[in-house]
């Protein structure tokens, strides 16, 4: 089954304690992206990756890091989480630019609470 | 830059009522337009899409028409069901890029 998986689904942590949210896709997609969802703001892009070892900032990258060492994985790293990073996080992937009508597929979400 | 504006929610309807959720956009060129749905506790699922002007996307009784002249992509359904209760997001992808720009989301609640 084609899917995007994220782990963990729920996480409670404390300020300053480094954490990583994993994302994996099994569709051989080149493009992957992280979003955060906050009430009244919709989804905002944090980082994206066009392919292995190619990453770039989205609209709200501050306080986050990513890496893309393998095509299927795109972890989101919070080196020193703060309460304003409490949010619902989604990973997404998408097929190549040359594919017509391509669509982003989303993971189930990770709900993060930073105390 | 690109932007998407959705009608403010929440929207509460009775079962079998007609639904319209307005969506307008600002973008250069010819973006692709999408509606995503988020059911409680789940991730986003693509509901429908349109990739060029006058295209109509449809799925599960929902429809939206890409109107270039009014820069709109309003979501409609003739008769909503309780199971349609969810958050609906309008989104666009620019002509040359991969990034999705989302609206704020509209919470729909359908009562029996």
Q: What would you say about this model in short?
A:
The complex is a heterodimer of chains A (115) and B (112). Chain A is built from no helices and 11 strands. Chain A is mostly beta strands.
Query: Shape of chain A from CA axes?
Result: globular
Largest interface, counted by CB within 8 Å of the partner chain's CB? A-B, 27 and 20 residues
Unreliable stretches of chain B: none
**DSSP strand count of chain A:** 11
Oligomer: heterodimer
Number of helices of chain B: 0
What's the helix-strand series of chain A?
EEEEEEEEEEE
Radius of gyration of chain A: 14 Å
- Give the distance, in angstroms, between the N- and C-terminal Cα atoms of chain B: 41 Å
Number of strands of chain B: 12
- Which structural class is indicated by helix and strand composition of chain A? mainly beta
Explain this structure:
The complex is a heterodimer of chains A (115) and B (112). Chain A is mainly beta. Chain A has strands at residues 4-7, 10-13, 19-25, 31-38, 42-51, 54-57, 65-66, 76-78, 87-94, 104-106, 110-114. The mean pLDDT of chain B is 93. By secondary structure, chain B is an all-beta fold. Chain B is globular, with a radius of gyration of 13 Å. At the A-B interface, strand 4, strand 5, strand 9 and strand 10 of A face strand 5 and strand 6 of B.
